[in-house]
Amino acid sequence: MIKNILVDRNALYAIREWASQFGLRLGDGREIGDDCLGRALERLFEMDRATLQTKIVLSVIKAFNVKTDQIHNDTTSVTVSGRYDNQDRAAVQLKRGHSKDHRPDLKQLIYSLCVSHDGAVPVHFKSFDGNRTDDTIHWEIWNDLKTLLQTPDFKYVGDSKLCVSQTLRQIDSAHGKFVAMVPKTRSEVKDFTDALDLGDVRWNRILRIRSTRSRKEFDTFDCALGPYYLEEGFLLYWYRSTQKKRRDIEDRKERINRAWDRLGNMDLKRLRGPKTEKAIRTRIDAILKKYKVQGWLEVDIKIDTHEELKAITRGKPTAETRYRRIIKSTPRLYIKRNAEAIARSQLMDGIFPLTTNTKDGALETLKTYKYQPNIEKRHAKLKSTLDVAPIWLKKNTRIEALMFVEYLAQMTTALIERQLRQQMKINKVELLTTLPEGRPSQTPTFEQILRLFEGSQRHELVDNQKIVQSFNPELMPVQSQILNLLGVSEAHYSCSI
């Protein structure tokens, strides 16, 4: 199943046909079918997967010498299609929640992943119910990592959902270390914005690096001269990035323009449902919330009234026709920008806060957190390269077991990438032509390697069920180079092994 996920993910009923291309069979020689795979998933669910995961991860850490002094955590949602009414209570519950796939209409599960700072190798995984919020899982995950690594002496890095007072205190009291983004809802953010407005903040340049989005540009980072502290007493660093400032300005402008266009094009006369001022206000608030421009745009509803005369009787009007007066109301929207609110938001353009209980300085704390996007790339590969969805399973027990298999596939891709890039540095290989059209890459990915080898086939000429001759694939120079860097013998692509 791991091989199938890595190479060409199929539903269980399609794995038999896929496996026949590679001569894959069960240990007793029988073909691989969906029934046996389904039963295997049920057995995997029933066994002690926590112990199995621990043994696998510790073996990987030892075999590949993976450093675990810094662990990053993030979650994503995996959506499923179907009702799933009768779920096994012992398994993860598929429920509607905050969908990171932007599908609130579908049920989901929460997929939590932890990766090492060394190569973004997955070292911990756990599935949670679909309506579980991120701020409630960090203490549980941290304890699992502490048990796995047999020490609390590692940096635990997370996003703003980690910055919960109780969680930070618990990790700190257990002698753990953390680095977390501070959410915008904290009072410290408002206080710092007020200080910016008064001009009481001074900055110090701490880093200048080449931008990852454009090699011709640089991203500079400043840190506010402090010290600053959270309400809980933990150290707080305020950073300002030139590239983030540009993105914040463009993002705010785009969201305001899109919300303005949506509101301006809203035909109040043809709206479905009631057209009362309350109903219209509800629709307006939904648009403002969707584009996250509450406070930046102000929308007033004006009701224009006018009189109309309508004949009481039918037919062509005459001098004796009687009329009745009707008062009609026509709602109109008046949209304007809140210049004061926008100006206050502009004060925080490019600025973000990090909190930590380590003894690291501002620069080291920033470098620690800047590795966080690598775990987001692991989630992206889970949904693209590994095609975690759609899920063609009816039982939530099998789905939970399948997520464990997906995790092992994630680990495999990460180890391949890490091993290849490490060997490139050791052998002083700066580029590999792994991109389409023979273009070079400094950081080859699993997808690129898979694409290079997917057409490699060996053919056999058979006469009377006897192999007369084998035709081995001719490997390209870049394929041989990759196999050599990964320590894989080319004999695997011949009939001699």
Sum this structure up briefly.
The chain has 497 residues and is an alpha+beta fold. The chain has 15 helices and 14 strands. A hairpin with a 5-residue loop joins strand 8 and strand 9.
Notable traits:
alpha+beta, globular, 497 residues, ten-stranded mixed β-sheet, two-stranded antiparallel sheet
Ordered list of secondary-structure elements with their pairings:
Layout: H1 2-8, H2 12-20, H3 34-46, H4 49-64, E1 70-80, E2 107-116, E3 122-128, H5 138-149, E4 155-158, H6 165-173, E5 177-181, H7 187-198, E6 203-210, E7 218-224, E8 228-229, E9 235-241, H8 242-264, H9 277-290, E10 297-311, E11 323-337, H10 339-346, E12 351-356, H11 362-369, H12 373-383, H13 396-426, H14 446-453, E13 459-463, E14 466-471, H15 477-486
Parallel strand pairs: 1-4, 4-5
Antiparallel strand pairs: 1-2, 2-3, 5-12, 6-7, 7-9, 8-9, 9-12, 10-11, 13-14
Helix pairs in contact: 1-13, 2-3, 3-13
